[in-house]
Amino acid sequence: MRILSIETSCDETSMALVDMVNVDNDINILIHGHFTASQAQYHAQYGGVFPAMAKLEHIKACLPLLHTLFAESGISIPEDEWASITPGKEQIENINKILHREIELANGLVEFCTKEKFPKIDLISVTNGPGLEMALWVGINFAKSLGEILNVPVVGTNHMMGHLYSGLLPEDILHKEIKLNPIPNDAIALLVSGGHTELIQVESYKVESEKKKTHIQQYTLLGATLDDAVGEAFDKVARMLDLPYPGGPAISKLAETKRRYSVSGSLAQTSESNGEVLDQLHFPRPMLHSKNYDFSYSGLKTAVLYHIQKLPSRQAGLPTDKAGNPISEQDKINIAKEFEDAAIEVLVKKTIKAMDETGANILLVGGGVSANKYLRKELIDAGKKYNFNVHFPLQSLTGDNALMIALATGIEYLYKEIKNQKDELKANGMLKIA
Ligand code: KG4
Ligand code: ZN
Fold first, then answer.
1. In angstroms, what is the span from residue 199 Cα to ligand 2's centroid?
2. Ligand with smallest separation from the Cα of 54
3. What is the average per-residue pLDDT within 366-378?
4. Which ligand has its closest atom nearest to the C-alpha of 43?
5. Is the preceding peptide bond at 246 cis, omega within 30 degrees of 0?
6. Same fold for the pair 2-172+397-413 and 184-257+285-307+332-393
7. What is the DSSP string of 396-414?
């Protein structure tokens, strides 16, 4: 089954073209191409994603990305699987209706058909939530228009389902068929992104009928954040420290500096600006000992804010540095490290509890925060200690991307009848897995 997947839920426009085939009970994947255009640099000045700008940037990126994707895919898709397509009058009218708010994209797509050939495609899959609805609609309407032109079914895929399965891809290699890591029968998924912090139990059943073997996946939400998501807390703390957006990588880099020095023992033990003994800086680990699997990150964020407000440099109104930032580099490093320790400790302990109490022996980790090196190290160590395997996405697939959307779509539809959702598909900013 050849899947064209489209992702526009936030600030990345991404498309992928893959073949997924069911070989006995395994799934093989052949990636023809996948490309992501990031808008992060445009949103950085606002310290977060600005939805109207995200929508415009997605509209601009759709056709150039499709062009690049097709050019790359020409390497592994045989020539006889390409064809020119001339949309008829009715199809053009329908595209104009679907894209009536993005009419320049409708016109561009019709022109695209006059210049480019299309490969054979069996299914178009598009992220229909969760995310920014304004942004999601661009991908959905573009997918519907392509479905109209190519006369193939269009289905919606949950963005978090993409993150959930992203760790099953063992290598990101183009033009060569590879085997996915097997879908586990009983796993826990830790989903950590800018909008989500969730622990989900994933159970997969094999159902054998006379005609074929199928897998059915069942998802149970064990727990989620009650307020801010962990990635959001990273971003907000980064803003307090005047670090660039997105904040996760910047905080993590500072925290790592401190950890490196601590190991080598060469870091001074007191903070220069406030004379505080470093190891006394301690932020709360909210809900660490709660009996459930829920999380809370807003208290931790507030604790960081209070700490910053009490720093002597702030209180005394001392002159600021060039960036207008009154927090010393040393304080930034200390705060970043202690914040990361607190945020990650809660994630890791709750995950261990979920592994233990459900008896699952595979952990699937996904979402932007799964790029965090300290989180990776702590979960791998926990896996060795408590006897479970951890699948992380490749670093290149931790952020939002359409390849993970194709993976999730293939895993679902290789075993399920495809029902065309083209006419009813809608953006759902709050779409849930379970
Ligand atoms: O999954 P993602 O790319 O977008 C959403 O679906 O939200 O996640 C983005 C989040 C941001 O909050 C970003 O700061 C965080 O992932 N992030 C990190 C790291 N890299 C990205 N957080 C902690 N450490 C990182 N290395
Ligand atoms: Zn995401």
1. 15
2. 1
3. 98
4. 1
5. yes
6. yes
7. GGSS--HHHHHHHHHHHHT
Tell me, what's the pLDDT at 264?
57
The superfamily (CATH) of domain 184-257+285-307+332-393 is ATPase, nucleotide binding domain (3.30.420.40)
> Using 50, 70 and 90 to split pLDDT, how confident is the model at 331?
very high
Measured by CA distance, the residue closest to atom 14 of ligand 1 is 248
What residue owns the CA closest to ligand 1's atom 23?
A: 248
Instruction: State whether the beta carbon of 166 lies less than 6 angstroms from ligand 1.
Output: no
| 220 close to 200: Cβ distance less than 8 angstroms | yes
Q: Quick one: tokens of 27?
A: 């799934």
| pLDDT per position as a tens digit, 145-161 | 999 999 999 999 999 99
10 lines ligand 1 (CB under 6 A): yes
Q: Which CATH architecture has domain 2-172+397-413?
A: 2-Layer Sandwich (3.30)
How far, rounded to the nearest angstrom, does the alpha carbon of residue 390 sit from its chain's CA centroid? 17
Please give the angle made by the CA atoms of 268, 272 and 276, to the nearest 5 degrees. Answer: 85
* Residue 88 token pair: 């008829």
> Ligand 1 within 6 A of 223 CB?
no
Is the CB of 374 within 6 Å of ligand 1? no
Domain positions in the chain? 2-172+397-413, 184-257+285-307+332-393
* Burial class of residue 334 in the structure, from the number of CB atoms within 10 Å of its CB (0-12 exposed, 13-18 middle, 19+ buried): buried
Q: What are the pLDDT digits (tens) for 33-70?
A: 999 999 999 998 887 899 999 999 999 999 999 999 99
- The ligand with the least distance to the CA atom of 162 is 2
- Top-ranked range on mean pLDDT: pick from 260-274, 317-331, 360-374: 360-374
- 113, burial (CB in 10 Å: exposed 0-12, middle 13-18, buried 19+): middle
Instruction: Return left, alpha or beta for 94; rule: phi > 0 is left, psi -120 to 50 is alpha, else beta.
Output: alpha
Mean pLDDT of 185-196: 97
Q: Tell me the C-alpha to C-alpha distance, in Å, between residue 406 and each of 16, 156, 278, 365.
A: 7, 11, 46, 17
For ligand 1, say whether the CB of 193 is within 6 Å of any of its atoms: yes
pLDDT at position 311: 85
Q: Report the candidate in 412, 42, 379 with the shortest Cα–Cα distance to residue 192.
A: 379
Question: Would the pTM count as exceeding 0.90?
Answer: yes
